[in-house]
Amino acid sequence: MEPLIEIKNLRVDFALRSGIVRAVRNVSLTIHKGERLGIVGESGAGKSVLGFSIINLISKPGRITDGQIIFKGEDIAKFPYEKMRTIRGNRIAMIFQDPMMTLNPVLTIGTQMKETIHAHMKVSDKEAEAICLDKLRKVYIPSPEKRLTQYPHEFSGGMRQRIVIAISLLTSPSLIIADEPTTALDVTIQAEIMDLLLELCKTENMGLILITHDLAVVSEVTQRIAVLYAGKVVEVGPTRQIIDNPQHPYTQGLIKALPQMAGGKKRLNQIPGMMPSLLDMPAGCPFQTRCPERIERCASDVPVLFESPRGAQVACFVREGGR
């Protein structure tokens, strides 16, 4: 089956006065139609930059310096701005962390939704309104006719995020990129939003890239997980395989750091040290300065992903047997 989107050796750099920051380093990932992929890692690992780069929303001085993003047979990484507009928000939609950064506070929900439709589809205003109402119902917004006339400040945080999801569905995209979509919401609302995304992926047969630092969330929603560290994929594979039997020492550290892993009144586990600066990456494996299992080779060579006998791809010399 042909992939919906295939990321090949993607590299994203930021040219700063202090030097080149390589935020995404030779990342390769594949997502099929209807598949749900989670991208996890610490803050600064490059998760959001990877998501933005897929729809070419990286602000200067950042830019894609190498690699391909093949979407339905075309390399959209090389699309000019105007051509990319036919993809962004249309075939590929994005849901951001804060809905108030997406919604215009001085326009009604109806106006904003119709503007999105008219930007990508040639339909009448009446047809556009019918599409708006249909999508609001799909995300379980009560009294959708009334909601179209209201402003963003009249909604709760959870309702605003539902509206943003409805907007992302307006053009029936093939892929949704959700960047920490529940960060600003309380736990109960978080669960409702994630259940909604899961349901929509199944009913609409959409692909989903869920970007988050929360392994508990991806374990409930996604089918596969890619673990990012310092801009590089260190482990990727089936969700249950990675949650139940992580191979890379970094993935093991993330799972051990979950509150439920501590139990009782024990102190939370944590990974010692900090992720290295992307301006001053150490030689060898980027995780070696924090790794409890490092071997001599880790200080000089950079490991690449290999097929683990346990079902995942792992970038670790120790798991390769020190070869």
Automatic annotation (TrEMBL):
The keyword Iron-sulfur does not apply. It comes from the Bacteria. One of its GO terms (cellular component) is plasma membrane. InterPro entries: AAA+_ATPase, ABC_Ni/Peptide_Import, ABC_transporter-like_ATP-bd, ABC_transporter-like_CS, Oligopep_ABC_C, P-loop_NTPase. Pfam families: ABC_tran, oligo_HPY. Keywords: ATP-binding, Cell membrane, Membrane, Nucleotide-binding, Transport. GO terms for biological process: peptide transport. Residues 5-255 form the ABC transporter domain. It is found in: Cell inner membrane. One of its GO terms (molecular function) is ATP binding. It is a peripheral membrane protein. This is Oligopeptide/dipeptide ABC transporter, ATPase subunit. It comes from Pseudodesulfovibrio aespoeensis (strain ATCC 700646 / DSM 10631 / Aspo-2).
